[in-house]
Amino acid sequence: MTNTAAKIAAQAGRALKLGMMPADGIGKEVLPCAARVLQSTPGAPKFDFVTLPAGFEHFQKTGSALPDETVRVLREECDGAMFGSVSSPSHKVEGYSSPIVKLRKELDLYANIRPVVGVRGTRDDEKWVDTVIVRENTECLYIKSETIEEGPQGQVARAIRQITERASKRIGKKAFDVALAREALRSKAGTSATAGRGKVTVCHKSNVLSVTDGLFRTAVRGVYESDKKSAGGPGRYEGIDMDEQLVDSMVYRLFREPHVFDVVVAPNLYGDIISDGAAALVGSLGVVASVNAGDTFFMGEPVHGSAPDIAGQNKANPIASIRSAALLLEYMGYSDPALKIYKAVDDVIREGKYLTPDLQGTATTSECEEAILRALQK
């Protein structure tokens, strides 16, 4: 059953049911780490975990990458979900489509929220990265409407890009709500907003794609401007600034001045690219988390892929999965235990003794997880 944060909080007396989809590759190693951290976090609710099939490996065995029964259980029985990683092939495989893309559409998880956060004391604190990329999750080129045909000079491939006013408005609203929530979380954690915080940056390329990106830009800006006009006084987003950035200069500034960004909202493709690129600013894709958010249901998902080259070797970094579990807690209404997980992970990264190879360490997946579990109890 799907739940709002208020309903979930009211049900804290019973165990919450989480659908767990390890899927492919290292997903099978890092998702159990996240489950154990959730079970061990002081103040967290009790959980019942149900493992559900999905992924390319499942498709190879059964012909289905996302069984209908998986979707039914998530929709009708679960309070939330976690997804591991998927091995989508780079070439066309007849009958296969990405289960994570389909899940987002089936459950209307229209926002992919990806914090890219550095750890104080480990890099240049003057350019400390603390940014959330809010990616529209249901349309753009990801509607996967492509054709190929023979032309006079060879094959011609075409792809339809869909941007709608409705999807753009609701992802814009989600971005401004994230900015408000970040301010509240900073206050709760005892960290004041620094220069450049409390701001939503609209990322687009409307100087070239004036129709599609133009609609996205106008719709998102309209959320902010309507809030000002309709309030008759201080609006809901009073105190949150808004600016915009072309996607190419966004990439440039993200690497040169990452500290100037707070919340970035982008269409599906741009959000995917810039959030993966931004992971380099904090050391690895292995530490970057995300939550797929709808209005009543949430699914945590590490940003990294299935990493088949290290799968099964106890080398994968569990931090992205563990942080994704914390994000899931936060969006389900349990911010206090989420903060404990964030702090435990930061303490382990800062200490530097139990980092996995992607962070230039020598620790195993298990050793990194155990270090985080110990830090949680301090």
Automatic annotation (TrEMBL):
GO terms for biological process: isocitrate metabolic process; lysine biosynthetic process; tricarboxylic acid cycle. It comes from the Eukaryota. GO terms for molecular function: homoisocitrate dehydrogenase activity; isocitrate dehydrogenase (NAD+) activity; magnesium ion binding; NAD binding. GO terms for cellular component: mitochondrion. InterPro entries: IsoCit/isopropylmalate_DH_CS (IPR019818), IsoPropMal-DH-like_dom (IPR024084). Keywords: Magnesium. SMART domains: Iso_dh. Residues 17-372 form the Isopropylmalate dehydrogenase-like domain. Belongs to the isocitrate and isopropylmalate dehydrogenases family. This is Putative LYS12-homo-isocitrate dehydrogenase.
